[in-house]
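Closing statement on the S-adenosylmethionine sub-project.
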Amino acid sequence: MGKNPTDVWEILLKDWESEIWNIPNVKANHPEKTVHPCQFPIELVERLVLALTNEGDWVFDPFVGVGSSLVAGLIHNRKVMGVDKEKEYTDIAYQRIVSAIEGNLKRRPLGKPVYQPKGTEKVARPPIEWLKKPLEEWIK
Ligand SMILES: C[S@@+](CC[C@H](N)C(=O)[O-])C[C@H]1O[C@@H](n2cnc3c(N)ncnc32)[C@H](O)[C@@H]1O
C-alpha cells in the first residue's frame, strides 16, 4: 500500500489467478502521462519483463514510443534498447530513462491496487441541471 508495497506479490498472484491484469490505462491524470497518444503503463511491461526475462537480459522494443518498456526493463536491472520513427518520442524516452536512473521518474508502482470510487467524487455526482428536474422526467 505504500512506497515499497509488501502486498505486491499477493496482488499479482490474485490477478494471475483471475486471468485479468487490472492496470489503469495512461490517460489525463495518470502520473506517467506524456504527449504520446497511446502510451503503455510501465507496470504492464514490468510484469512481462519479470515473467519473461532474467536480470542482465536485453529488452528490445522496436516501437518504443516514450520508452515505457525501457524504463520497465531498467527498473529490474535489464539492458534495454529501443527504436521509434518519431524523434519527439525518443527525446521524451531519453528523459524518462534519465529520470528513472536518477530515481525521480513519476510512475504508478507495480501492483498498486486500482482506485475504487466511493461515489462522493465530483465525477460521480449528477450535474446540478439534472437535480432541477425529477429523475422520472429524464427517463420518460
Ligand atoms: C503503440 S505506440 C508505442 C507506445 C509505447 N509502448 C509507449 O509506452 O510509449 C507505437 C509506436 O510505434 C511507432 N512506429 C510506428 N511505425 C514505426 C516504424 N515503422 N518504425 C519505428 N517506429 C514506428 C510510433 O511512432 C509509436 O510511437
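The chain has six helices and two strands. With this model delivered, the sub-project is considered complete and its resources will be redirected to Aim 3.
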